[in-house]
Amino acid sequence: MRILIVEDNQPLAEWLARGLRQSRYIVDCLHDGAQADHVLSLETYDLVVLDLGLPRLGGQDVLRRLRARGNDVPVIILTANNSLEGRIGGLDIGADDYLAKPFEMVELEARMRALLRRSTGKKNPTLACGTLTYDSNTQAFSIAGQDLELTPREHAVLVALVMQAGKTVSKRTLATTLATLDGEVSIDAIEIYVHRLRRKIEASDAMIATLRGLGYLLRQRDAG
């Protein structure tokens, strides 16, 4: 899952990014509203964590412009203003959730997981493709109850595939999922990650099929 943090307090932004990366999210950080507005007009994210008190362009204006472009990415607002009016105002302009500072990382991550489940239509926190199981609360994969060891990028690719199990996911979509503002991921790299994943899930009855010219599809081996 690719997350954008927009927070002008750099120590706080770095703390958030570090915690979310430890939870296996792909994270970008920006520190002013104008830059965030520009990046959000070009890049695709699964969720945005947005502070309201931003330089150059306020968080409310970033959110208004985002929604005006028809972008429905889930947005959690962070703010020191915990008044009723502040919460209502943020929700009314298109935020999906509202978290007042100071807050605990565990609460932020729980809210993120709930929004990500809602946005993908996956209300059950546990997803399965045969004996391959993904727990979105712990971000862990397992095969028949045994934990599956994955590198961060292998994990991100398999999350993208299990979220769309039974459907084709293009190589370009997978590359975008892994990309950060510091660098892109090549199609060749995606092929390597998928090759490694195929070996690691061999003990399950799930498989990653290649649809030439289209992408990859995660399905059960005995599925048609």
Explain this structure.
With 224 residues, this protein is of the alpha/beta class. The chain has two domains: 2-120, Response regulator (Rossmann fold); 126-220, Winged helix-like DNA-binding domain superfamily/Winged helix DNA-binding domain (Arc Repressor Mutant, subunit A). The protein is built from eight helices and twelve strands. The protein has helices spanning 10-22, 33-40, 59-68, 84-92, 105-120, 152-163, 171-178, 187-200; strands spanning 2-6, 26-30, 47-51, 75-79, 97-100, 126-129, 132-135, 140-143, 146-147, 168-169, 206-211, 215-220. The strands form three sheets. Strands 2-1-3-4-5 form a five-stranded parallel β-sheet, sandwiched between helices. Strand 7 (132-135) and strand 8 form a beta hairpin. The two termini are 28 Å apart. The model has no long low-confidence stretch (mean pLDDT 92).
What structural keywords apply?
alpha/beta; Arc Repressor Mutant, subunit A; 2 domains; five-stranded parallel β-sheet; four-stranded antiparallel β-sheet; 23% strand; elongated
Q: Architecture of the largest domain in CATH?
A: 3-Layer(aba) Sandwich
Number of helices: 8
**Low-confidence regions:** none
Fill in the CATH topology of the largest domain: Rossmann fold
| Radius of gyration, whole Å | 18 Å
End-to-end C-alpha gap: 28 Å
| Proportion in helices | 40-55%
Order of the strands making up the biggest sheet: 2-1-3-4-5
Q: Please count the beta strands (DSSP E, at least 2 residues each).
A: 12
Order of helix and strand elements from N to C terminus? EHEHEHEHEHEEEEHEHHEE
Question: What coarse outline follows from CA principal-axis ratios?
Answer: elongated
Largest sheet: 5 strands, parallel
Task: Determine and state the CATH class of the largest domain.
Answer: Alpha Beta
Q: For the residues shown, what is the average pLDDT?
A: 92
Estimate the strand proportion.
15-25%
| Total separate domains | 2
CATH 4th-level superfamily of the largest domain: Response regulator
Protein name: Response regulator consisting of a CheY-like receiver domain and a winged-helix DNA-binding domain
InterPro entries: CheY-like_superfamily, OmpR/PhoB-type_DNA-bd, Sig_transdc_resp-reg_C-effctor, Sig_transdc_resp-reg_receiver, WalR-like, WH-like_DNA-bd_sf
Pfam family, one: Trans_reg_C
Organism: Solilutibacter silvestris
